[in-house]
Write a structure and sequence with these properties.
Blueprint (H helix, E strand, L loop, with lengths): L7 H10 E11 L12 E12 L6 E4 L4 E7 L2 E3 L1 H4 L4 E4 L5 E11 L6 E6 L6 E6 L21 E6 L5 E4 L3 E2 L6 E4 L12 E4 L2 E10 L5 E10 L9 H19 L8 E6 L6 E2 L4 E5 L10 H17 L7 E2 L6 H18 L5 H17 L14 H6 L4 H17 L1 H15 L3 E2 L1 H12 L3 H8 L7 E8 L5 E9 L10 E12 L7 E13 L3 E3 L11 E6 L6 E2 L3 H10 L6 H16 L5 H11 L6 H18 L5 H18 L5 H13 L3 H12 L11 H13 L5 H10 L3 H13 L3 H12 L6 H11 L5 H4 L2 H15 L2 H10 L8 H13 L5 H26 L5
Parallel strand pairs: 1-10, 16-17, 17-19, 20-21, 22-28
Antiparallel strand pairs: 1-2, 2-7, 3-6, 4-5, 4-7, 8-9, 9-14, 10-13, 11-14, 12-13, 15-16, 18-19, 22-23, 23-26, 24-25, 24-27
Helix pairs in contact: 3-4, 3-5, 4-5, 5-8, 6-8, 6-13, 8-9, 9-10, 13-15, 14-15, 14-16, 15-17, 16-17, 17-19, 18-19, 19-21, 20-21, 21-23, 22-23, 23-26, 25-26, 27-28
Length: about 850
Amino acid sequence: MPGENLSRDEAQERGRLLRVDAYDVALDVRSAVASGPEAETFRSLTTLRFRCAEPGASAFADLLAPSVTSVTLNGRDLDPAAVFDGTRITLDSLAAENTLVVDARCAYSRTGQGLHRFVDPEDGEVYLYTQYEPADARRVFANFEQPDLKAPFTFEVTAPEGWRVLSNGAQEGGAEGGRHRFATTEPISTYITAVVAGPYHYVSDVYRRTFEDGTELEIPLGALCRKGLAKHFDADDVFTITKQGLDFFHDHFDFPYPFGKYDSAFVPEYNLGAMENPGCVTFREEFIFRGKVTEASYEGRANVILHEMAHMWFGDLVTMQWWDDLWLKESYADFMGAFALVGATRFTNGWITFANRRKSWAYHADQLPSTHPVTADIRDLEDAKLNFDGITYAKGASVLKQLVAYAGQDAFLEGARRYFKRHAYGNTRLTDLLAALEETSGRDLASWSRAWLETAGVNSLTPQVTYGAQGRITELSILQEAAPSHPQLRPHRVAVGLYRRQTLSSVGGDSALVRYARAEVDVDGPRTAVPELAGLERPELVLVNDEDLTYAKVRFDEGSLATLRARLGDLADPMARAVCWAALWGLTRDGLMPARDYLDLVGRFAGRETGIGVLQTLHGQAQTALELYSAPDRREQAARELAEAALHELRLADPGSDHQLAWARHFIALAATPADLQLLQGLLDGTAKIDGLDVDQELRWAALEPLAAHGLADEAVIGAELARDNTASGKRHQVRCLAARPSAEVKAQAWAQAVESDALSNALVEATNAGFAQFGQRELLAPYRPRYFAAIEGVWRERSIEIAMEVVRSLFPAWLVEQDTLDAADGWLDGHPQAAPALRRLVLEKRDDLARALRAQACDEAAGPRP
């Protein structure tokens, strides 16, 4: 529809013209428990009070709804058919002060956008929740859908009797007749308003804080999930992390939490990890663990909880003017999530996980043709939707970590405090934050901003070392390079570590690679000397960006790389290992190290990795190297070797340990030989056991998928497993396993359900696509290469943006890593120059990943047979 994709120019003009005073929104969702067509829509009644700077001017309100019953502007009844086009309500002849009343029938969603309706297959109960970012509040109530038109909101929700209903504000009074009214919020943007409604299981607690001046703060806490998940819900741990985070941010921000209560709602079929709605944060319910998971999963959940909490200040209290400055909230929340994780919780190694996992996402995104500055050029809402990416989140957070090293932690935090107090409940741009940070740091941040925030691309840092006759360092320099497409060289504050073998009594007298010298230096320009390290004894390893202070690709001199090939597992410091693993993965992705070498390193040294988060990252990267980067003629052998190594480590791991579980999941993902699959079958039917390994329901589903993909689990077997686990989670697993079966008929049915029909919900589309795209079924999937390129424009035009993005990304024919696929992608791009820019960006990104895979395969092929 022409008005659905709001442009920045339109938003700027409307923002210049209007100021919003208040919203009163009344929703009647009793239809959610009905059947048939009645259950498709709900009543939405909005009263919107706003001012206009130019009386007599025209504007528009946003609304995506099947129908509008009435529109009243300043007491005048307007003809809905004349003023509403399906996406916008035209508002002519505005007064200085205006009241707009819109009575509409809005649609429940099955795509995770707007007001999502979920029916639990386990007990038939109905659950609702909202998700709006960047602009889906207009699917639920009429509004001005842009972040700078903030206003106080008052919500009233009429729901079925007995339902629990939450919104941003605390509920006021009882709920007679199922009517729930909520306290008016502080001024907030439309995209962070929220409603959660249904027979949710709810647990409560309270946070209390006494400040130095004697004032007291009490925040009611809530945590909720579907009734079917209540037996798995560890709300106590959620509350623990929540309280630790509130303490941490109060200590560092000097601005009390401003939104009253703090509810954490874990909801089904959620498209995101979580959303920072003030007072009512929503999370994907997969953060409630139905089976045994490693400590890395708990760390990941804690990081998300803290990330969303940081948004209460960065994003909710102070909000970006337009999506160009999305980094003002997402980069800061990503950084503060890790910062608080290490500073306030039991997960003190959070920066190690950040270095190995989070930054890997950033490096990937920053080398795509769609890379962009941290402060992006966001022309419209489709641009905004795609910019929730590795640049905005992880690179932005990495840049902020570099800024802390550059400006100092105290100055950085004091700048944030001034920023909050100066702009509370307002909207800001890049210059507003930089002004506060310049005041506190004494640094000129304009040039820093131009280098780090306003240009794209990632630099590489390589040590260059010369030695004298006595084997001592005569000169050590750092060489900085940039890609020709993004030639900006940046200032980096880095630590350089020198490592050599040392006998450690703490490891039984064995030798380890230990740092014996360190220097911290400002790298600026193509070559920077490190004179502090001259004259020292020859190291076995020179590690640039030791401690992971900056954002850059790390390279090695020849001697250091040889040391890592031989003794990577001997590195004693876990952060140093994480930085080295990440650098080696970068070499592999860039086609500078053969995939077989990386897989060999994983096979020999991953078993010695103590960090469970790093280990699980290595497992995922090894599988990518196997499937995408290995030379085709040795992929089968490489897969067999990797699976053998995984099974070996699985049997060696301590019974019941996180490492045992991680190796079990890695082995399951790799299982392909008859012996491997027989072991999986034995674990399922109880004829095989591994001491200490609990084959719970989640692990059963994981083991069933490769059996299905190899034709060893038919529809009846998969159905029997669903009977064991007849839940929403079980249904998603069942759909994925059904689509994984190696049959042309199965693939045709899965394709039709995901691509040609809108009958499936967002979660089931995702599960279908994941089962469909099996890398071991290349010949079976080959016919879908031309079908993909023929279908995607229609998918983009006809489906919701969430579903369309999922289909375009997941069903790109990446399983055919060959020139013909690259040519097909290029042919589509050349032949569709007028396709939606966001769609072209997604295809271009997938095309670039494919080209990278072909280069990596060529590198692996050129390496020849292993000696």
